[in-house]
From TrEMBL:
SUPFAM superfamilies in UniProt: Sigma2 domain of RNA polymerase sigma factors, Sigma3 and sigma4 domains of RNA polymerase sigma factors
Gene3D superfamilies: 1.10.1740.10, Winged helix-like DNA-binding domain superfamily/Winged helix DNA-binding domain
Protein name: Sigma-70 family RNA polymerase sigma factor
Record keywords: Sigma factor, Transcription, Transcription regulation
């Protein structure tokens, strides 16, 4: 289980079993409700992993089509949101692989000491600054940061999803966090300086 200090996934939406049953029966209104509830979390996850709004829109559409196609396979032994999130992650990572954005500059299976419980960079509260900084990172590094900090995946789970090793995930997290801190600290310093002026 991820540490309690880690962010709760934006996917953590309790979906009534009656709504799932209606969707399984092919009821369009039920699918529309599921779409509305999960549109923003899927799009945000896809944007963070793919780094492009158009790609994120395509991941959203592919994810929802796959949910419609596979809802009969959902057994209910885990939360529906976790099942849907797994589909979204798989779709986003598959799109990255197809685009051959891996390997990239930081994709080395080198173990680097990482403080797994370190909070995201200090300016993370500023969503626009964070988005700009994330966009400068290689796709795999950005993906590890988002899956670990925002979605609460463990290094072992990320390694499985990305077909890599846990040490790869740890090194990407360490390097990505360090890089984000460098990119965001000037913003933090200027905010602090203006507050003391």
């Amino acid at each position: 289980m991820p540490p309690e200090s880690r962010s709760t996934s934006s996917f953590a939406i309790e979906v009534p079993s009656a709504l799932i049953a209606r969707a399984r029966a092919g009821e369009r209104a039920a699918f529309e409700q599921v779409y509305r509830w999960f549109e923003r979390p899927v799009f945000t996850l896809a944007l963070r992993i793919c780094g492009d709004r158009e790609e994120a829109s395509e991941v959203l559409q592919d994810t929802m089509l796959r949910v419609i196609d596979r809802i009969g396979h959902f057994r209910g032994d885990s939360p529906f949101w976790g099942w849907l999130r797994q589909i979204a992650v798989n779709e986003a990572l598959m799109r990255l692989r197809r685009a051959k954005q891996q390997p990239d500059g930081l994709d080395l299976d080198v173990h680097e000491p990482a403080d797994d419980h370190a909070p995201p960079p200090p300016a993370a509260a500023d969503a626009a600054a964070l988005q700009r900084a994330l966009a400068t990172l290689p796709a795999s590094t950005r993906s590890v940061l988002w899956l670990y900090h925002a979605e609460g995946y463990t290094h072992e789970e990320i390694a499985t999803l990305m077909e890599r090793t846990a040490s790869f995930s740890k090194s990407q997290l360490a390097r990505g966090t360090r890089r984000l801190r460098l990119l965001l600290e000037p913003d933090t310093r200027s905010i602090q300086e203006s507050a003391h002026a």
